[in-house]
Design goal:
The complex is a heterodimer of chains A (375) and B (148). Chain A has 375 residues and is of the alpha+beta class. Chain A has helices spanning 8-16, 65-71, 80-94, 99-120, 182-195, 197-209, 256-269, 279-287, 339-348, and strands at 20-25, 28-37, 40-49, 52-56, 124-129, 135-141, 147-154, 162-166, 212-214, 224-230, 233-238, 249-253, 326-327, 336-337, 352-354, 357-361, 368-372. Chain A folds into four domains: 8-95; 100-195, Roll (Ubiquitin Conjugating Enzyme); 206-287, RWD domain-like (Ubiquitin Conjugating Enzyme), CATH 3.10.110; 304-372, Herpes Virus-1 (2-Layer Sandwich), CATH 3.30.40. In chain A, strands 1-2-3-4 form a four-stranded antiparallel sheet, covered by helices on one side. A four-stranded antiparallel sheet of chain A has the order 5-6-7-8. In chain A, strands 9-10-11-12 form a four-stranded antiparallel sheet, covered by helices on one side. Chain A starts with 7 loop residues before the first helix and ends with a strand. In chain A, 23% of the residues are buried. Chain B is globular. In chain B, a hairpin with a 6-residue loop joins β1 and β2 (35-39). With 148 residues, chain B is an alpha+beta fold. Chain B has one domain (6-137): Ubiquitin Conjugating Enzyme (Roll). The longest helix of chain B has 15 residues, at 6-20. The chains are: A alpha+beta (375), B alpha+beta (148). The A-B interface holds A 303-305, 312-316, 319, 335, 341, 344-345, 348, 363-364 and B 6-7, 9-10, 13-14, 17, 20-21, 62-63, 97-99, 101, 103. Chain A: InterPro entries: Fancl (IPR026848), FANCL_C (IPR026850), FANCL_d3 (IPR044037), FANCL_d3_sf (IPR043003), Znf_RING/FYVE/PHD (IPR013083). Chain A: This is RING-type domain-containing protein.
Amino acid sequence: MDIDVMDNEEITMLLKYPMMRKIVKNGVVHYQGAIDINEIIYKVSVIETDKGYIVELPTECGHLHDDFVALQPTLHLRRIISCLDALKNLIEKNVPSNALANNCDIYIQVLFEYSEFTKFHVSLKSCYLHHDLSKITVKMLDEQNKEHCLVIKVNYDGREIFEISDYDLPVEKEELKVSSSLRVVYDHFAGIVNELQPYFRLMDEFDRNCYILDPVDHKNRHNYRRVWLDDNLSMIITINPFRMCQLPEIKFLGPDRLTESYYSNINRNILEWNANEDVFMEILKLIGLEEYPLKPQITIQEDVLVKSGDCCICFSSRLNNKLPEVICKHPFCGNSYHVECLYEWLISLNARKVFTTIIGQCLNCEKNISCPIPS
Amino acid sequence: MAGLSPSERRLQKELMSLVKEPPPGVSVDPDIAERNLLQGAAGTLYEGERFQLQFKFSNKYPFDSPEVTFVGQNIPIHPHVYSNGHICLSILTDDWSPALSVQSVCLSIMSMLSSCKEKQRPPDNAFYVKTCNKNPKKTKWWYHDDSV
Protein backbone atom coordinates (compact mmCIF):
# COMPACT_ATOMS: atom_id res chain seq x y z
CA MET A 1 0.00 0.00 0.00
CA ASP A 2 1.33 3.43 -0.92
CA ILE A 3 1.08 5.78 2.01
CA ASP A 4 2.36 9.32 1.75
CA VAL A 5 4.29 9.75 4.99
CA MET A 6 6.35 12.64 6.22
CA ASP A 7 9.95 11.87 7.13
CA ASN A 8 11.98 13.57 9.83
CA GLU A 9 13.89 15.68 7.41
CA GLU A 10 10.74 17.13 5.96
CA ILE A 11 9.42 17.93 9.41
CA THR A 12 12.65 19.75 10.33
CA MET A 13 12.38 21.73 7.12
CA LEU A 14 8.77 22.67 7.71
CA LEU A 15 9.52 23.83 11.23
CA LYS A 16 12.10 26.26 9.93
CA TYR A 17 10.69 27.07 6.51
CA PRO A 18 6.91 26.64 6.83
CA MET A 19 6.18 27.95 3.35
CA MET A 20 8.12 25.19 1.60
CA ARG A 21 6.66 21.89 0.55
CA LYS A 22 7.88 18.66 -0.91
CA ILE A 23 6.32 17.48 -4.15
CA VAL A 24 7.07 14.28 -6.02
CA LYS A 25 6.57 14.71 -9.76
CA ASN A 26 7.29 11.74 -12.05
CA GLY A 27 9.50 10.20 -9.42
CA VAL A 28 11.58 13.40 -9.01
CA VAL A 29 11.55 15.19 -5.67
CA HIS A 30 10.93 18.94 -5.83
CA TYR A 31 10.86 21.41 -2.98
CA GLN A 32 8.81 24.44 -3.83
CA GLY A 33 7.48 27.45 -2.05
CA ALA A 34 8.92 30.56 -0.52
CA ILE A 35 11.19 31.67 2.28
CA ASP A 36 10.96 34.82 4.30
CA ILE A 37 14.18 36.82 4.63
CA ASN A 38 14.05 40.19 6.39
CA GLU A 39 10.31 40.36 5.74
CA ILE A 40 10.70 39.85 2.03
CA ILE A 41 9.27 36.71 0.48
CA TYR A 42 11.54 34.91 -1.98
CA LYS A 43 10.19 32.21 -4.25
CA VAL A 44 12.38 29.14 -4.10
CA SER A 45 12.49 25.97 -6.11
CA VAL A 46 14.86 23.08 -5.45
CA ILE A 47 15.19 19.82 -7.34
CA GLU A 48 16.72 16.76 -5.76
CA THR A 49 18.99 14.83 -8.13
CA ASP A 50 21.35 11.96 -7.52
CA LYS A 51 24.25 14.44 -7.73
CA GLY A 52 22.78 16.70 -5.05
CA TYR A 53 20.34 19.58 -4.90
CA ILE A 54 19.86 22.01 -7.73
CA VAL A 55 18.65 25.36 -6.43
CA GLU A 56 17.00 27.91 -8.65
CA LEU A 57 17.99 31.37 -7.55
CA PRO A 58 15.06 33.71 -6.86
CA THR A 59 14.77 36.14 -9.79
CA GLU A 60 15.28 39.20 -7.59
CA CYS A 61 18.75 37.89 -6.70
CA GLY A 62 20.08 37.69 -10.23
CA HIS A 63 23.15 39.76 -9.36
CA LEU A 64 24.15 37.17 -6.76
CA HIS A 65 24.37 34.51 -9.42
CA ASP A 66 28.19 34.33 -9.48
CA ASP A 67 28.47 34.11 -5.68
CA PHE A 68 25.89 31.39 -5.67
CA VAL A 69 27.62 29.34 -8.35
CA ALA A 70 30.80 29.55 -6.27
CA LEU A 71 28.88 28.27 -3.28
CA GLN A 72 27.10 25.48 -5.10
CA PRO A 73 29.74 22.70 -5.01
CA THR A 74 29.55 22.76 -1.24
CA LEU A 75 25.82 22.18 -1.37
CA HIS A 76 26.01 18.76 -2.94
CA LEU A 77 25.13 15.68 -0.96
CA ARG A 78 23.89 17.66 1.99
CA ARG A 79 20.48 17.87 3.52
CA ILE A 80 17.72 20.04 2.10
CA ILE A 81 17.68 22.10 5.25
CA SER A 82 21.35 23.06 4.96
CA CYS A 83 20.78 23.87 1.33
CA LEU A 84 18.03 26.34 2.19
CA ASP A 85 20.14 27.73 5.03
CA ALA A 86 22.98 28.45 2.63
CA LEU A 87 20.64 30.25 0.26
CA LYS A 88 19.17 32.29 3.09
CA ASN A 89 22.64 33.24 4.36
CA LEU A 90 23.76 34.38 0.95
CA ILE A 91 20.75 36.59 0.43
CA GLU A 92 20.90 37.99 3.94
CA LYS A 93 24.53 38.86 3.54
CA ASN A 94 24.21 40.48 0.15
CA VAL A 95 20.87 42.22 0.05
CA PRO A 96 20.44 45.13 2.43
CA SER A 97 17.13 44.58 4.10
CA ASN A 98 15.18 47.44 2.52
CA ALA A 99 17.09 48.01 -0.70
CA LEU A 100 15.01 45.81 -2.91
CA ALA A 101 11.96 47.99 -2.75
CA ASN A 102 13.86 50.95 -4.21
CA ASN A 103 15.45 49.08 -7.07
CA CYS A 104 12.51 49.50 -9.44
CA ASP A 105 13.38 53.14 -9.95
CA ILE A 106 16.96 52.26 -10.75
CA TYR A 107 15.88 49.52 -13.16
CA ILE A 108 13.70 51.97 -15.02
CA GLN A 109 16.47 54.53 -15.16
CA VAL A 110 19.03 52.00 -16.40
CA LEU A 111 16.73 50.80 -19.15
CA PHE A 112 15.83 54.32 -20.17
CA GLU A 113 19.43 55.56 -20.18
CA TYR A 114 20.57 52.50 -22.05
CA SER A 115 18.03 52.81 -24.85
CA GLU A 116 18.72 56.53 -25.24
CA PHE A 117 22.43 55.86 -25.22
CA THR A 118 22.46 53.26 -27.98
CA LYS A 119 20.33 55.50 -30.18
CA PHE A 120 22.65 58.48 -30.26
CA HIS A 121 26.24 57.32 -30.29
CA VAL A 122 27.93 56.58 -33.59
CA SER A 123 31.39 55.63 -32.31
CA LEU A 124 29.94 52.55 -30.59
CA LYS A 125 30.96 49.26 -32.10
CA SER A 126 28.79 47.23 -29.80
CA CYS A 127 26.92 47.74 -26.58
CA TYR A 128 25.28 45.12 -24.38
CA LEU A 129 23.15 45.39 -21.33
CA HIS A 130 23.47 42.31 -19.13
CA HIS A 131 20.13 40.66 -18.53
CA ASP A 132 20.31 41.21 -14.77
CA LEU A 133 20.85 44.95 -15.34
CA SER A 134 24.11 44.79 -13.37
CA LYS A 135 26.48 46.05 -16.05
CA ILE A 136 26.82 47.35 -19.57
CA THR A 137 29.66 46.26 -21.85
CA VAL A 138 30.66 48.79 -24.48
CA LYS A 139 33.09 48.51 -27.36
CA MET A 140 34.05 51.70 -29.13
CA LEU A 141 36.35 52.67 -31.99
CA ASP A 142 38.61 55.68 -31.75
CA GLU A 143 39.72 57.83 -34.67
CA GLN A 144 42.53 55.41 -35.53
CA ASN A 145 40.01 52.56 -35.57
CA LYS A 146 41.52 51.15 -32.42
CA GLU A 147 39.04 49.24 -30.33
CA HIS A 148 38.45 50.10 -26.67
CA CYS A 149 36.37 47.98 -24.38
CA LEU A 150 34.84 49.16 -21.14
CA VAL A 151 32.47 47.73 -18.60
CA ILE A 152 30.08 50.11 -16.88
CA LYS A 153 28.77 48.82 -13.59
CA VAL A 154 25.35 49.71 -12.22
CA ASN A 155 25.41 50.61 -8.54
CA TYR A 156 22.36 49.65 -6.52
CA ASP A 157 23.68 50.81 -3.18
CA GLY A 158 22.82 54.48 -3.29
CA ARG A 159 26.01 55.73 -4.92
CA GLU A 160 25.97 57.32 -8.38
CA ILE A 161 24.40 54.70 -10.62
CA PHE A 162 26.93 54.35 -13.45
CA GLU A 163 30.58 53.61 -12.76
CA ILE A 164 33.28 52.30 -15.10
CA SER A 165 34.59 49.10 -13.53
CA ASP A 166 36.82 47.65 -16.22
CA TYR A 167 38.82 49.48 -18.89
CA ASP A 168 42.25 49.66 -20.44
CA LEU A 169 43.70 53.15 -20.32
CA PRO A 170 46.76 54.58 -18.54
CA VAL A 171 44.58 56.49 -16.09
CA GLU A 172 43.60 55.88 -12.49
CA LYS A 173 40.05 54.82 -11.78
CA GLU A 174 39.51 57.93 -9.68
CA GLU A 175 39.99 60.08 -12.76
CA LEU A 176 36.99 58.52 -14.49
CA LYS A 177 33.59 60.04 -14.00
CA VAL A 178 30.88 58.42 -11.91
CA SER A 179 27.42 59.71 -12.69
CA SER A 180 23.74 58.94 -12.78
CA SER A 181 23.83 59.63 -16.48
CA LEU A 182 25.25 56.94 -18.71
CA ARG A 183 26.04 59.49 -21.38
CA VAL A 184 28.13 61.64 -19.09
CA VAL A 185 30.20 58.61 -18.00
CA TYR A 186 30.76 57.48 -21.56
CA ASP A 187 31.44 60.91 -23.05
CA HIS A 188 34.08 61.57 -20.42
CA PHE A 189 35.75 58.25 -21.20
CA ALA A 190 35.60 58.91 -24.96
CA GLY A 191 37.10 62.34 -24.32
CA ILE A 192 40.09 60.77 -22.58
CA VAL A 193 40.51 58.28 -25.43
CA ASN A 194 40.50 61.16 -27.85
CA GLU A 195 43.06 63.06 -25.84
CA LEU A 196 45.30 59.98 -25.77
CA GLN A 197 45.50 59.54 -29.54
CA PRO A 198 49.11 60.83 -29.84
CA TYR A 199 50.08 58.53 -26.96
CA PHE A 200 48.59 55.45 -28.67
CA ARG A 201 50.35 56.38 -31.88
CA LEU A 202 53.73 56.65 -30.14
CA MET A 203 53.33 53.36 -28.27
CA ASP A 204 52.33 51.62 -31.51
CA GLU A 205 55.46 53.02 -33.10
CA PHE A 206 57.61 51.51 -30.36
CA ASP A 207 55.85 48.17 -30.64
CA ARG A 208 56.26 48.06 -34.39
CA ASN A 209 59.88 49.20 -34.65
CA CYS A 210 61.66 48.08 -31.51
CA TYR A 211 62.39 44.84 -29.78
CA ILE A 212 60.30 45.18 -26.63
CA LEU A 213 61.48 43.12 -23.66
CA ASP A 214 58.73 44.22 -21.34
CA PRO A 215 55.74 44.25 -21.04
CA VAL A 216 55.34 41.14 -23.16
CA ASP A 217 51.61 41.34 -23.52
CA HIS A 218 51.31 45.09 -23.65
CA LYS A 219 48.00 46.80 -23.14
CA ASN A 220 46.96 50.42 -23.53
CA ARG A 221 47.42 51.02 -19.84
CA HIS A 222 51.15 50.19 -19.95
CA ASN A 223 52.76 53.59 -20.39
CA TYR A 224 56.31 52.25 -20.44
CA ARG A 225 58.40 50.08 -22.73
CA ARG A 226 61.63 48.27 -22.00
CA VAL A 227 63.52 48.44 -25.28
CA TRP A 228 66.36 46.11 -26.17
CA LEU A 229 69.55 47.98 -27.12
CA ASP A 230 72.27 45.38 -26.90
CA ASP A 231 73.13 42.16 -25.08
CA ASN A 232 72.90 43.07 -21.44
CA LEU A 233 71.65 46.59 -22.16
CA SER A 234 68.14 47.94 -22.37
CA MET A 235 66.26 51.11 -21.57
CA ILE A 236 62.93 51.70 -19.91
CA ILE A 237 61.05 54.61 -21.45
CA THR A 238 58.15 55.90 -19.41
CA ILE A 239 55.80 58.25 -21.19
CA ASN A 240 53.44 60.72 -19.61
CA PRO A 241 50.33 59.91 -21.67
CA PHE A 242 48.82 63.36 -21.29
CA ARG A 243 51.95 65.41 -21.75
CA MET A 244 53.70 63.93 -24.69
CA CYS A 245 55.85 66.98 -25.27
CA GLN A 246 57.38 66.53 -21.84
CA LEU A 247 60.73 64.80 -21.74
CA PRO A 248 60.03 61.10 -21.13
CA GLU A 249 61.69 59.34 -18.25
CA ILE A 250 64.49 57.15 -19.58
CA LYS A 251 66.36 54.64 -17.47
CA PHE A 252 69.13 52.43 -18.79
CA LEU A 253 69.60 48.94 -17.44
CA GLY A 254 72.98 47.37 -17.87
CA PRO A 255 76.51 47.49 -16.51
CA ASP A 256 77.84 50.99 -15.85
CA ARG A 257 80.47 50.83 -18.55
CA LEU A 258 77.65 50.49 -21.12
CA THR A 259 75.07 52.84 -19.65
CA GLU A 260 77.44 55.71 -18.90
CA SER A 261 77.87 56.74 -22.52
CA TYR A 262 74.09 56.79 -23.01
CA TYR A 263 73.53 58.95 -19.99
CA SER A 264 76.17 61.40 -21.16
CA ASN A 265 74.53 61.44 -24.62
CA ILE A 266 71.27 62.43 -22.98
CA ASN A 267 72.96 65.17 -21.00
CA ARG A 268 74.54 66.51 -24.16
CA ASN A 269 71.44 66.29 -26.38
CA ILE A 270 68.82 67.34 -23.90
CA LEU A 271 68.84 70.98 -25.03
CA GLU A 272 67.93 69.96 -28.54
CA TRP A 273 64.75 68.22 -27.42
CA ASN A 274 62.00 69.60 -29.60
CA ALA A 275 58.54 68.86 -28.29
CA ASN A 276 56.88 69.79 -31.57
CA GLU A 277 58.65 67.11 -33.56
CA ASP A 278 57.84 63.43 -33.68
CA VAL A 279 58.51 62.14 -30.16
CA PHE A 280 59.65 58.71 -31.38
CA MET A 281 62.48 60.21 -33.43
CA GLU A 282 63.26 62.82 -30.79
CA ILE A 283 63.94 60.06 -28.25
CA LEU A 284 66.31 58.45 -30.71
CA LYS A 285 68.20 61.73 -31.12
CA LEU A 286 68.24 62.18 -27.38
CA ILE A 287 69.99 58.89 -26.70
CA GLY A 288 72.34 59.53 -29.59
CA LEU A 289 71.54 56.64 -31.92
CA GLU A 290 71.00 56.56 -35.68
CA GLU A 291 68.18 54.05 -35.42
CA TYR A 292 66.56 51.76 -32.88
CA PRO A 293 68.43 48.44 -32.78
CA LEU A 294 66.49 45.63 -34.42
CA LYS A 295 65.57 42.42 -32.72
CA PRO A 296 68.77 40.41 -32.37
CA GLN A 297 69.21 37.35 -34.53
CA ILE A 298 68.60 34.09 -32.75
CA THR A 299 71.78 33.70 -30.78
CA ILE A 300 74.05 30.70 -30.78
CA GLN A 301 73.87 30.73 -27.03
CA GLU A 302 70.73 28.55 -26.93
CA ASP A 303 72.40 25.72 -25.03
CA VAL A 304 74.35 27.79 -22.54
CA LEU A 305 73.11 27.27 -19.00
CA VAL A 306 72.96 30.97 -18.12
CA LYS A 307 72.61 33.41 -20.99
CA SER A 308 73.82 36.95 -20.59
CA GLY A 309 71.01 38.92 -19.02
CA ASP A 310 69.59 35.88 -17.24
CA CYS A 311 69.37 35.89 -13.48
CA CYS A 312 72.44 34.20 -11.99
CA ILE A 313 70.34 32.64 -9.24
CA CYS A 314 67.28 31.12 -10.87
CA PHE A 315 69.05 30.77 -14.25
CA SER A 316 66.13 32.20 -16.17
CA SER A 317 65.17 35.55 -17.58
CA ARG A 318 61.58 35.79 -16.44
CA LEU A 319 60.40 35.27 -12.91
CA ASN A 320 56.72 36.01 -12.36
CA ASN A 321 56.92 37.81 -15.66
CA LYS A 322 59.63 40.18 -14.44
CA LEU A 323 63.09 40.54 -15.95
CA PRO A 324 66.27 40.72 -13.86
CA GLU A 325 66.58 44.33 -12.78
CA VAL A 326 69.56 44.40 -10.44
CA ILE A 327 72.80 44.52 -12.36
CA CYS A 328 76.24 44.42 -10.75
CA LYS A 329 77.76 47.86 -11.09
CA HIS A 330 81.31 46.62 -11.26
CA PRO A 331 82.83 47.03 -14.71
CA PHE A 332 83.40 43.69 -16.46
CA CYS A 333 81.04 41.86 -14.14
CA GLY A 334 77.58 43.12 -15.02
CA ASN A 335 75.79 40.01 -13.82
CA SER A 336 72.04 40.35 -13.50
CA TYR A 337 69.66 39.25 -10.77
CA HIS A 338 65.94 39.29 -10.13
CA VAL A 339 65.14 41.49 -7.17
CA GLU A 340 63.35 38.57 -5.46
CA CYS A 341 66.21 36.11 -6.02
CA LEU A 342 69.01 38.38 -4.86
CA TYR A 343 66.99 39.57 -1.89
CA GLU A 344 66.26 36.03 -0.76
CA TRP A 345 69.95 35.15 -0.95
CA LEU A 346 71.20 38.29 0.81
CA ILE A 347 68.62 37.99 3.57
CA SER A 348 69.72 34.40 4.17
CA LEU A 349 73.23 35.76 4.80
CA ASN A 350 71.89 38.35 7.24
CA ALA A 351 73.08 41.11 4.96
CA ARG A 352 72.87 44.74 6.05
CA LYS A 353 69.62 46.61 5.39
CA VAL A 354 69.82 50.33 4.72
CA PHE A 355 66.45 52.06 4.35
CA THR A 356 64.77 50.35 1.40
CA THR A 357 67.78 48.42 0.16
CA ILE A 358 69.83 45.50 1.30
CA ILE A 359 73.55 45.48 0.73
CA GLY A 360 75.70 42.42 0.15
CA GLN A 361 78.15 41.01 -2.33
CA CYS A 362 77.68 40.15 -5.97
CA LEU A 363 77.74 36.35 -6.23
CA ASN A 364 80.04 36.58 -9.16
CA CYS A 365 82.65 39.28 -8.48
CA GLU A 366 82.14 39.62 -4.71
CA LYS A 367 82.03 43.40 -4.97
CA ASN A 368 79.30 45.26 -3.10
CA ILE A 369 75.86 45.12 -4.62
CA SER A 370 72.67 46.68 -3.37
CA CYS A 371 69.22 45.34 -3.95
CA PRO A 372 65.88 47.07 -3.35
CA ILE A 373 63.79 45.31 -0.72
CA PRO A 374 60.77 43.92 -2.56
CA SER A 375 57.44 45.12 -1.22
CA MET B 1 57.52 24.72 -18.25
CA ALA B 2 54.55 26.28 -16.57
CA GLY B 3 53.59 24.94 -13.18
CA LEU B 4 57.15 24.37 -12.01
CA SER B 5 58.58 26.40 -9.17
CA PRO B 6 61.63 28.57 -9.98
CA SER B 7 63.77 26.02 -8.15
CA GLU B 8 62.38 23.11 -10.19
CA ARG B 9 62.73 25.10 -13.37
CA ARG B 10 66.37 25.78 -12.65
CA LEU B 11 67.06 22.10 -11.88
CA GLN B 12 65.30 21.08 -15.07
CA LYS B 13 67.50 23.48 -16.99
CA GLU B 14 70.66 22.25 -15.28
CA LEU B 15 69.76 18.64 -16.02
CA MET B 16 69.07 19.37 -19.68
CA SER B 17 72.39 21.13 -20.01
CA LEU B 18 74.25 18.31 -18.22
CA VAL B 19 72.70 15.69 -20.50
CA LYS B 20 73.24 17.69 -23.66
CA GLU B 21 76.67 19.12 -23.01
CA PRO B 22 78.31 17.52 -20.00
CA PRO B 23 81.68 18.90 -18.93
CA PRO B 24 84.57 16.57 -19.90
CA GLY B 25 84.71 13.50 -17.67
CA VAL B 26 81.16 13.88 -16.35
CA SER B 27 78.04 12.02 -17.44
CA VAL B 28 74.55 11.77 -16.02
CA ASP B 29 73.12 8.41 -15.11
CA PRO B 30 70.14 8.24 -17.47
CA ASP B 31 68.03 6.15 -15.08
CA ILE B 32 68.63 7.98 -11.84
CA ALA B 33 68.97 11.57 -12.84
CA GLU B 34 70.30 12.60 -9.46
CA ARG B 35 73.58 10.73 -9.88
CA ASN B 36 76.52 11.88 -11.89
CA LEU B 37 79.35 9.70 -13.05
CA LEU B 38 82.79 11.10 -12.68
CA GLN B 39 85.80 9.80 -14.53
CA GLY B 40 89.32 10.20 -13.20
CA ALA B 41 91.12 12.77 -15.32
CA ALA B 42 94.03 11.55 -17.41
CA GLY B 43 97.49 12.02 -16.00
CA THR B 44 96.37 12.00 -12.37
CA LEU B 45 96.40 9.44 -9.59
CA TYR B 46 92.83 8.46 -10.44
CA GLU B 47 93.30 7.90 -14.17
CA GLY B 48 90.93 5.22 -15.48
CA GLU B 49 88.83 5.11 -12.33
CA ARG B 50 85.11 5.90 -12.30
CA PHE B 51 83.21 7.36 -9.39
CA GLN B 52 79.58 8.03 -8.71
CA LEU B 53 78.33 11.22 -7.11
CA GLN B 54 74.91 11.66 -5.61
CA PHE B 55 73.26 15.08 -5.47
CA LYS B 56 70.29 15.68 -3.23
CA PHE B 57 68.42 18.96 -3.50
CA SER B 58 66.13 20.51 -0.95
CA ASN B 59 63.25 22.66 -2.09
CA LYS B 60 65.26 25.70 -1.06
CA TYR B 61 67.79 25.04 -3.80
CA PRO B 62 69.63 27.10 -5.08
CA PHE B 63 69.59 29.14 -1.86
CA ASP B 64 70.49 26.01 0.01
CA SER B 65 73.45 23.92 -1.16
CA PRO B 66 72.88 20.43 -2.54
CA GLU B 67 73.91 17.44 -0.45
CA VAL B 68 76.74 15.82 -2.41
CA THR B 69 78.34 12.47 -1.57
CA PHE B 70 80.25 9.77 -3.35
CA VAL B 71 78.17 6.59 -3.61
CA GLY B 72 78.59 3.11 -5.07
CA GLN B 73 81.42 0.60 -4.85
CA ASN B 74 84.32 2.87 -5.63
CA ILE B 75 84.85 5.76 -3.20
CA PRO B 76 87.98 7.70 -4.15
CA ILE B 77 90.84 7.48 -1.69
CA HIS B 78 91.63 11.11 -1.07
CA PRO B 79 92.59 13.20 1.98
CA HIS B 80 89.26 15.06 1.77
CA VAL B 81 86.96 12.15 1.05
CA TYR B 82 85.82 9.91 3.89
CA SER B 83 85.22 6.24 3.25
CA ASN B 84 81.45 6.73 3.67
CA GLY B 85 81.49 9.08 0.67
CA HIS B 86 81.34 12.37 2.56
CA ILE B 87 83.40 15.14 0.99
CA CYS B 88 85.11 17.94 2.86
CA LEU B 89 84.76 20.79 0.39
CA SER B 90 83.93 24.32 1.47
CA ILE B 91 81.68 25.20 -1.50
CA LEU B 92 79.31 22.43 -0.41
CA THR B 93 78.52 24.19 2.84
CA ASP B 94 79.95 27.51 4.05
CA ASP B 95 81.11 28.84 0.72
CA TRP B 96 78.06 27.76 -1.27
CA SER B 97 76.58 30.40 -3.54
CA PRO B 98 73.45 30.14 -5.67
CA ALA B 99 75.55 31.13 -8.67
CA LEU B 100 77.20 27.70 -8.46
CA SER B 101 75.57 24.77 -10.20
CA VAL B 102 75.77 20.99 -10.38
CA GLN B 103 78.19 21.47 -13.20
CA SER B 104 80.53 23.73 -11.25
CA VAL B 105 80.39 21.41 -8.21
CA CYS B 106 81.41 18.49 -10.45
CA LEU B 107 84.29 20.49 -11.83
CA SER B 108 85.45 21.48 -8.34
CA ILE B 109 85.42 17.88 -7.20
CA MET B 110 87.30 16.80 -10.33
CA SER B 111 89.92 19.42 -9.73
CA MET B 112 90.14 18.43 -6.06
CA LEU B 113 90.80 14.83 -7.10
CA SER B 114 93.18 15.79 -9.88
CA SER B 115 95.45 17.87 -7.70
CA CYS B 116 95.94 15.06 -5.18
CA LYS B 117 99.55 14.00 -4.64
CA GLU B 118 99.07 10.92 -2.54
CA LYS B 119 96.15 8.53 -2.26
CA GLN B 120 95.20 8.39 1.39
CA ARG B 121 92.13 8.71 3.59
CA PRO B 122 91.67 11.69 5.89
CA PRO B 123 93.58 11.18 9.17
CA ASP B 124 90.39 11.08 11.27
CA ASN B 125 88.51 8.79 8.87
CA ALA B 126 87.76 5.91 11.25
CA PHE B 127 86.42 8.18 14.00
CA TYR B 128 84.39 10.40 11.65
CA VAL B 129 82.72 7.54 9.78
CA LYS B 130 81.60 6.00 13.08
CA THR B 131 80.21 9.19 14.59
CA CYS B 132 78.98 11.35 11.76
CA ASN B 133 75.43 12.21 10.75
CA LYS B 134 74.11 10.61 7.57
CA ASN B 135 73.81 14.03 6.02
CA PRO B 136 77.28 15.53 5.39
CA LYS B 137 75.80 19.03 5.64
CA LYS B 138 75.20 18.40 9.34
CA THR B 139 78.93 18.09 9.91
CA LYS B 140 80.82 21.13 11.14
CA TRP B 141 83.66 21.00 8.68
CA TRP B 142 87.00 22.37 9.50
CA TYR B 143 88.64 23.38 6.26
CA HIS B 144 92.30 23.10 7.12
CA ASP B 145 94.06 22.33 3.95
CA ASP B 146 93.67 24.48 0.88
CA SER B 147 96.42 22.90 -1.14
CA VAL B 148 94.56 19.78 -2.29
